[in-house]
């Protein structure tokens, strides 16, 4: 009688060093895995739970200001530093890697700073109050707003050009990153105005029902911009078609943070408010900081893909979408939701009790826009 025995080579199963990984042999035949979907669903559910467990977005706070932090700016050539300005006229340079304050300087005029020498390079005295300023992405000109829009050259003490459309105060200004000659402003008369430096007059003016406090261009799609409105919504527009908003961003309940900036790599964000502190946060609350090993990175990519695949299922969806909000924000959000539902019911009843066609249904993207002036 001949008996066949299993013979294995020791070299195929023995590790050369203790640091080597154990060799695991798998059969990838799909017919042997009848519970593949169930296993993936369990992994997605566990990944969603672990994401909430390890969600710790706060990194650190940076103090040093003695008044409310009102504005921030980034330097594209120095990614680890950020500059902040407070309402007492202090300008601070902050080192994000160590969360420490580097330098504070006090100025109350239109001032050009050199943080290499900690001295003012140039000071221009004017008789008006500035509400905002922005520099060209690729050029030497910069703009200031207040009673009017002024275009400045650093080598001159007077504006090279000035624009004025109405007598209302201009609140903010931003240059287009794609075209250095295009800029947009928001004013207290509820208007958004586009300017072209190659023209002697403003190009287009959009009037809304409520005032826009700030405006910003999309760095990846330079033809689009977003305006922060007083009705707690943000509206994204296409500069070539201003008769309706592309997207309406909802979810805010009130304005409590004065300024927020993302870092250039998108990993962190910095917020400043009236408690005189700057806070550093992770953009993804559960993201692991530091250098990841290849196996760790592949595992995280796999878990993200599994969560994306099963995000529509009830259990995974409930965990992923759940947010623990502070009590005041939670109550304000419920009140805001109740007000919106009541307004929609009232409008629907008015439409039912009016003549057919007298009150057409208007999309929300057009509801807050009054008119466009050329």
Structure description:
Belongs to the WD repeat DCAF13/WDSOF1 family. A hairpin with a 3-residue loop joins strand 13 (182-187) and strand 14 (191-196). The chain has helices at residues 36-53, 294-309, 314-321, 327-352, 364-367; strands at 58-62, 69-75, 78-86, 90-95, 100-106, 110-114, 119-124, 132-135, 142-145, 149-152, 161-163, 170-175, 182-187, 191-196, 204-208, 212-217, 224-229, 234-238, 247-249, 259-262, 268-272, 278-282, 369-373. The chain has 374 residues and is α+β, with helices and mostly antiparallel strands. The radius of gyration is 28 Å and the shape is extended. Among the domains are: 36-125 and 256-282 and 305-316, no CATH class; 126-245, YVTN repeat-like/Quinoprotein amine dehydrogenase (Methylamine Dehydrogenase, Chain H, 7 Propeller), CATH 2.130.10.10. It starts with 35 loop residues before the first helix and ends with a strand. Helix 1 (36-53) packs across helix 2.
How is this fold's topology laid out?
Elements: H1 36-53, E1 58-62, E2 69-75, E3 78-86, E4 90-95, E5 100-106, E6 110-114, E7 119-124, E8 132-135, E9 142-145, E10 149-152, E11 161-163, E12 170-175, E13 182-187, E14 191-196, E15 204-208, E16 212-217, E17 224-229, E18 234-238, E19 247-249, E20 259-262, E21 268-272, E22 278-282, H2 294-309, H3 314-321, H4 327-352, H5 364-367, E23 369-373
Antiparallel strand pairs: 1-22, 2-3, 3-4, 4-5, 6-7, 8-9, 9-10, 10-11, 12-13, 13-14, 14-15, 15-23, 16-17, 17-18, 18-19, 20-21, 21-22
Helix pairs in contact: 1-2, 1-3
């Amino acid at each position: 009688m001949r008996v066949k025995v299993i013979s294995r080579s020791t070299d195929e199963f023995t590790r050369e060093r203790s640091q080597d990984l154990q060799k695991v042999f798998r059969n990838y035949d799909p017919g042997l895995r009848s519970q593949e979907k169930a296993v993936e669903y369990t992994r997605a559910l566990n990944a969603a739970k672990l994401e909430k467990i390890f969600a710790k977005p706060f990194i650190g706070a940076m103090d040093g200001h003695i008044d409310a932090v009102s504005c921030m700016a980034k330097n594209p050539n120095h990614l680890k530093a950020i500059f902040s300005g407070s309402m007492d006229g202090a300008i601070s340079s902050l080192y994000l890697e160590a969360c420490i304050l580097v330098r504070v300087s006090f100025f109350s005029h239109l001032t050009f700073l050199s943080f290499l020498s900690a001295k003012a390079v140039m000071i221009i005295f004017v008789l008006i109050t500035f509400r905002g300023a922005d520099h060209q992405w690729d050029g030497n000109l910069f703009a200031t707003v207040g009673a009017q829009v002024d275009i400045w050259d650093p080598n001159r003490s007077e504006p090279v050009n000035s624009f004025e459309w109405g007598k209302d105060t201009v609140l903010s200004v931003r240059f287009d990153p794609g075209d250095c000659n295009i800029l947009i402003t928001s004013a207290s008369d509820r208007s958004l105005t586009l300017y072209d430096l190659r023209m002697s007059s403003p190009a287009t003016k959009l009037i809304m029902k409520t005032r826009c406090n700030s405006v910003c261009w999309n760095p990846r799609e330079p033809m689009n911009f977003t305006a922060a409105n007083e009705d707690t919504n943000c509206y994204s527009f296409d500069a070539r078609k201003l008769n309706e908003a592309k997207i309406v961003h909802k979810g805010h309940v009130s304005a409590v943070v004065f300024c927020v900036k993302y870092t250039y790599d998108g990993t962190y964000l910095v917020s400043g408010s009236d408690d005189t502190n700057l806070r550093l946060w992770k953009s993804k609350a559960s993201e692991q900081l530091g250098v990841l090993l290849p196996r760790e990175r592949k595992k995280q990519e796999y878990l993200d893909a599994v969560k994306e695949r099963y995000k529509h299922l009830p259990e995974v969806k409930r965990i992923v979408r759940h947010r623990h909000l502070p009590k005041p924000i939670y109550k304000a959000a419920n009140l805001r939701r109740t007000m919106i539902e009541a307004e929609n019911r009232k409008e629907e009843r008015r439409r039912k009790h009016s003549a057919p066609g007298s009150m057409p249904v208007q999309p929300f993207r057009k509801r807050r826009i009054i008119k466009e002036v050329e």
